[in-house]
Amino acid sequence: MNKKIFALVIITVMIGLVLSACTRSATSKSPTDATATSEIPFPVGTLDTSARVTEIVQQTQNAAATPSVPTVQVPQVSTPVVIPTTAGLPTLVLQPTATNVPVKVPTLSRPETYTIQFGEWPICIARRYNLDLNGLLEANNLSMTSSPEPGTVLNIPATGTWTSGERALKAHPADYTVISGDTINSIACEFGDVDPLAIAAANGLSSPYTLSAGSVIDIP
What we know:
The chain is mainly α. The protein has two domains: 1-28 and 47-66; 113-219, Roll (Membrane-bound Lytic Murein Transglycosylase D, Chain A). It is 36% helix and 6% strand. The protein is built from seven helices and four strands; from the N terminus they run αααβααββααβ. It has helices at 2-27, 31-38, 49-65, 122-128, 133-139, 184-191, 196-202, and strands spanning 113-115, 153-155, 174-177, 216-219.
């Protein structure tokens, strides 16, 4: 900064010397020039060289004393985009949805013998297994009014089919509300052509196939 001031002062002094030389040259003109000059129709003031030099030096010093402030480029800071991370977050475990698994209903096949259960009678067995009712009664020395006790073993004929109307007594599949004293065997007889083991399978029952009064079960 001092070097700049010094250079400006030197330049100012040199300008002052040039102006001073011009002034001396003007004052040393011949009388003829003076006469010619006096013919100018307006007054010409004398140039105060020292005052002008002082003014130039003062302006130079003021300019040097007031340093120029450089323009500072302020960098523009963009707002950072925060990308959420999954670090530390609990892993979402999707539980498998429950699916309805079809119930495998046992196939009803004609047995060679059958043991009468509580709530059953011969006509019920004939409907269930698609037997000829008269053939079943004759094979076991029974009549239409016979009521074999539970535990009685019946011989099942290998031939003959049901010929006494519709085997089904009630439409199914259906819902059934259990009443006191019901068993899967007595309910099967109430519907006619339904297998008691099919009722047990449809409702997830296992031996001894206990039923509660008021509960609703599925009849396949």
